[in-house]
Design brief:
heterodimer; A: mainly beta; four-stranded antiparallel beta sheet; B: mainly beta; seven-stranded mixed beta sheet; 0% helix; 50% strand
Amino acid sequence: QLQLQESGPGLVKPSETLSLTCTVSGGSISSTPYYWGWIRQPPGKGLEWIGSIYYSGITYHNPSLKSRDTISIDTSKNQFSLKLSSVTAADTAVYFCVSFPPDTSIVASYFDYWGQGTLVTVSS
Amino acid sequence: DIQMTQSPSSLSASVGDRVTITCRASQRINSNLNWYQQKPGRAPKLLIYAASSLQSGVPSRFSGSGSGTEFALTISSLQPEDFSTYYCQQSNAIPYTFGQGTKLEIK
Protein backbone atom coordinates (compact mmCIF):
# COMPACT_ATOMS: atom_id res chain seq x y z
CA GLN A 1 0.00 0.00 0.00
CA LEU A 2 1.39 3.36 -0.99
CA GLN A 3 1.97 6.12 1.50
CA LEU A 4 2.50 9.73 0.45
CA GLN A 5 3.90 12.52 2.62
CA GLU A 6 4.14 16.19 1.71
CA SER A 7 6.93 18.38 3.02
CA GLY A 8 7.97 21.98 2.58
CA PRO A 9 7.78 25.45 4.11
CA GLY A 10 4.50 26.39 5.73
CA LEU A 11 4.98 30.10 5.07
CA VAL A 12 5.92 31.74 1.79
CA LYS A 13 6.21 35.46 1.05
CA PRO A 14 4.14 37.04 -1.74
CA SER A 15 5.85 37.00 -5.16
CA GLU A 16 8.17 34.17 -4.08
CA THR A 17 8.12 30.51 -5.12
CA LEU A 18 6.31 27.82 -3.17
CA SER A 19 8.19 24.50 -3.16
CA LEU A 20 6.76 21.23 -1.94
CA THR A 21 7.96 17.64 -2.11
CA CYS A 22 5.97 14.43 -1.89
CA THR A 23 7.84 11.37 -0.64
CA VAL A 24 6.39 8.04 -1.72
CA SER A 25 6.82 4.89 0.32
CA GLY A 26 5.47 1.38 -0.16
CA GLY A 27 6.32 1.34 -3.84
CA SER A 28 8.73 2.65 -6.44
CA ILE A 29 7.82 5.89 -8.12
CA SER A 30 9.31 4.73 -11.40
CA SER A 31 9.12 0.96 -11.62
CA THR A 32 5.39 0.85 -12.34
CA PRO A 33 3.54 3.15 -14.75
CA TYR A 34 2.02 5.59 -12.29
CA TYR A 35 0.62 9.05 -12.55
CA TRP A 36 1.17 11.34 -9.58
CA GLY A 37 -0.40 14.68 -8.84
CA TRP A 38 -1.03 17.73 -6.72
CA ILE A 39 -4.37 19.07 -5.49
CA ARG A 40 -5.00 22.06 -3.26
CA GLN A 41 -7.78 23.29 -1.02
CA PRO A 42 -8.00 26.89 0.22
CA PRO A 43 -9.19 27.12 3.83
CA GLY A 44 -12.90 26.41 4.02
CA LYS A 45 -13.21 25.91 0.26
CA GLY A 46 -13.29 23.16 -2.33
CA LEU A 47 -10.67 21.13 -4.15
CA GLU A 48 -8.62 22.23 -7.15
CA TRP A 49 -6.43 19.98 -9.29
CA ILE A 50 -3.06 21.62 -9.91
CA GLY A 51 -1.31 19.14 -12.19
CA SER A 52 -0.01 15.62 -12.68
CA ILE A 53 3.16 13.89 -13.79
CA TYR A 54 3.71 10.50 -15.36
CA TYR A 55 6.54 8.34 -14.05
CA SER A 56 8.38 9.08 -17.31
CA GLY A 57 8.27 12.81 -16.59
CA ILE A 58 5.41 13.90 -18.86
CA THR A 59 3.38 16.59 -17.13
CA TYR A 60 -0.18 17.91 -17.28
CA HIS A 61 -1.24 21.24 -15.86
CA ASN A 62 -4.32 23.20 -14.92
CA PRO A 63 -4.47 26.27 -17.20
CA SER A 64 -5.97 28.26 -14.30
CA LEU A 65 -2.48 28.50 -12.81
CA LYS A 66 -1.21 30.29 -15.92
CA SER A 67 1.95 28.19 -16.19
CA ARG A 68 3.20 29.21 -12.75
CA ASP A 69 3.54 25.58 -11.68
CA THR A 70 6.39 23.17 -12.32
CA ILE A 71 6.04 19.50 -11.45
CA SER A 72 9.04 17.22 -11.49
CA ILE A 73 10.01 13.72 -10.42
CA ASP A 74 13.17 12.48 -8.70
CA THR A 75 13.31 8.72 -9.07
CA SER A 76 16.53 8.43 -7.02
CA LYS A 77 14.70 9.79 -3.97
CA ASN A 78 11.28 8.31 -4.75
CA GLN A 79 9.84 11.81 -4.68
CA PHE A 80 7.96 14.22 -6.88
CA SER A 81 7.78 17.96 -6.40
CA LEU A 82 5.71 21.07 -7.01
CA LYS A 83 7.00 24.57 -7.50
CA LEU A 84 4.54 27.45 -7.80
CA SER A 85 5.98 30.80 -8.72
CA SER A 86 4.84 34.37 -8.07
CA VAL A 87 2.53 33.35 -5.26
CA THR A 88 -0.16 35.59 -3.81
CA ALA A 89 -2.54 35.25 -0.88
CA ALA A 90 -4.90 33.38 -3.21
CA ASP A 91 -2.40 30.49 -3.24
CA THR A 92 -2.84 29.96 0.51
CA ALA A 93 -4.18 26.43 0.78
CA VAL A 94 -3.68 22.91 2.02
CA TYR A 95 -1.68 21.12 -0.66
CA PHE A 96 -2.19 17.39 -1.15
CA CYS A 97 -0.07 15.00 -3.19
CA VAL A 98 -1.95 12.11 -4.76
CA SER A 99 -1.44 8.96 -6.75
CA PHE A 100 -3.44 7.32 -9.51
CA PRO A 101 -3.87 3.55 -9.70
CA PRO A 102 -1.06 1.84 -11.64
CA ASP A 103 -1.40 1.23 -15.36
CA THR A 104 -4.20 3.76 -15.86
CA SER A 105 -4.42 6.59 -18.33
CA ILE A 106 -4.39 10.29 -17.56
CA VAL A 107 -8.13 10.41 -18.18
CA ALA A 108 -10.82 8.05 -16.94
CA SER A 109 -8.91 7.55 -13.70
CA TYR A 110 -9.08 8.64 -10.08
CA PHE A 111 -6.98 9.58 -7.05
CA ASP A 112 -6.69 6.54 -4.85
CA TYR A 113 -4.00 7.54 -2.36
CA TRP A 114 -3.61 10.95 -0.77
CA GLY A 115 -1.00 12.50 1.45
CA GLN A 116 -2.22 14.03 4.69
CA GLY A 117 -1.85 17.52 3.23
CA THR A 118 0.29 20.47 4.22
CA LEU A 119 -0.91 24.02 4.82
CA VAL A 120 1.00 26.69 2.96
CA THR A 121 0.27 30.28 3.91
CA VAL A 122 1.32 33.14 1.66
CA SER A 123 1.99 36.19 3.78
CA SER A 124 4.67 38.79 4.34
CA ASP B 1 -13.30 23.42 -18.41
CA ILE B 2 -16.06 21.03 -17.39
CA GLN B 3 -18.14 22.51 -14.58
CA MET B 4 -19.41 20.15 -11.89
CA THR B 5 -22.44 21.20 -9.85
CA GLN B 6 -23.50 19.30 -6.76
CA SER B 7 -26.82 19.49 -5.01
CA PRO B 8 -27.67 20.11 -2.36
CA SER B 9 -24.74 22.12 -0.97
CA SER B 10 -25.73 21.00 2.51
CA LEU B 11 -28.02 18.37 3.88
CA SER B 12 -29.30 17.47 7.35
CA ALA B 13 -30.22 13.87 7.99
CA SER B 14 -30.53 11.32 10.78
CA VAL B 15 -28.75 8.07 11.47
CA GLY B 16 -30.46 5.35 9.46
CA ASP B 17 -31.73 7.70 6.74
CA ARG B 18 -31.21 7.05 3.06
CA VAL B 19 -29.65 10.05 1.36
CA THR B 20 -28.78 10.92 -2.21
CA ILE B 21 -26.37 13.60 -3.43
CA THR B 22 -26.44 14.55 -7.08
CA CYS B 23 -23.72 15.85 -9.37
CA ARG B 24 -24.28 17.39 -12.77
CA ALA B 25 -21.59 17.93 -15.40
CA SER B 26 -21.70 20.83 -17.85
CA GLN B 27 -20.99 18.40 -20.70
CA ARG B 28 -21.08 14.65 -21.20
CA ILE B 29 -18.36 12.83 -19.28
CA ASN B 30 -19.38 9.22 -19.98
CA SER B 31 -18.88 7.37 -16.67
CA ASN B 32 -15.72 9.22 -15.70
CA LEU B 33 -17.01 10.43 -12.37
CA ASN B 34 -15.56 9.81 -8.92
CA TRP B 35 -16.83 10.49 -5.41
CA TYR B 36 -14.74 11.39 -2.35
CA GLN B 37 -15.53 11.81 1.33
CA GLN B 38 -13.66 14.37 3.40
CA LYS B 39 -13.72 14.78 7.16
CA PRO B 40 -12.50 17.99 8.83
CA GLY B 41 -8.73 18.28 8.85
CA ARG B 42 -8.29 15.11 6.79
CA ALA B 43 -7.46 14.28 3.21
CA PRO B 44 -10.33 13.23 0.96
CA LYS B 45 -10.96 9.51 0.68
CA LEU B 46 -12.03 7.79 -2.53
CA LEU B 47 -15.44 6.13 -2.24
CA ILE B 48 -16.66 5.47 -5.78
CA TYR B 49 -14.81 5.53 -9.10
CA ALA B 50 -16.05 5.25 -12.66
CA ALA B 51 -19.50 6.38 -11.50
CA SER B 52 -20.52 3.13 -9.83
CA SER B 53 -17.47 1.06 -8.79
CA LEU B 54 -17.00 0.78 -5.05
CA GLN B 55 -13.42 1.36 -3.89
CA SER B 56 -11.94 -1.51 -1.92
CA GLY B 57 -12.70 -1.26 1.78
CA VAL B 58 -15.62 1.15 1.39
CA PRO B 59 -18.86 -0.05 3.04
CA SER B 60 -21.53 -1.37 0.69
CA ARG B 61 -24.07 1.17 1.96
CA PHE B 62 -22.36 3.60 -0.44
CA SER B 63 -23.35 3.34 -4.09
CA GLY B 64 -22.97 5.44 -7.20
CA SER B 65 -25.02 5.71 -10.37
CA GLY B 66 -25.38 7.72 -13.53
CA SER B 67 -23.63 8.43 -16.81
CA GLY B 68 -23.42 11.25 -19.29
CA THR B 69 -24.13 14.39 -17.30
CA GLU B 70 -26.20 13.26 -14.29
CA PHE B 71 -24.76 11.29 -11.39
CA ALA B 72 -25.74 10.34 -7.87
CA LEU B 73 -24.13 9.12 -4.68
CA THR B 74 -26.48 7.24 -2.37
CA ILE B 75 -25.92 6.20 1.22
CA SER B 76 -28.51 3.55 2.02
CA SER B 77 -28.50 3.83 5.81
CA LEU B 78 -26.53 6.68 7.35
CA GLN B 79 -24.05 5.81 10.06
CA PRO B 80 -22.56 8.34 12.52
CA GLU B 81 -19.20 8.22 10.74
CA ASP B 82 -20.79 9.24 7.42
CA PHE B 83 -21.39 12.85 8.45
CA SER B 84 -18.76 14.52 6.27
CA THR B 85 -18.36 16.57 3.13
CA TYR B 86 -18.68 14.79 -0.20
CA TYR B 87 -17.14 15.84 -3.52
CA CYS B 88 -17.67 14.61 -7.04
CA GLN B 89 -14.83 14.86 -9.57
CA GLN B 90 -14.74 14.36 -13.32
CA SER B 91 -11.82 12.60 -14.97
CA ASN B 92 -13.09 12.75 -18.54
CA ALA B 93 -10.91 15.69 -19.53
CA ILE B 94 -8.01 17.79 -18.36
CA PRO B 95 -8.26 19.89 -16.23
CA TYR B 96 -9.91 17.59 -13.71
CA THR B 97 -12.61 19.48 -11.87
CA PHE B 98 -14.51 18.94 -8.65
CA GLY B 99 -17.98 19.81 -7.49
CA GLN B 100 -18.26 22.46 -4.79
CA GLY B 101 -19.00 19.85 -2.14
CA THR B 102 -22.02 18.69 -0.15
CA LYS B 103 -21.84 18.93 3.62
CA LEU B 104 -23.85 16.19 5.29
CA GLU B 105 -24.81 17.11 8.85
CA ILE B 106 -26.64 15.40 11.66
CA LYS B 107 -30.25 16.48 12.08
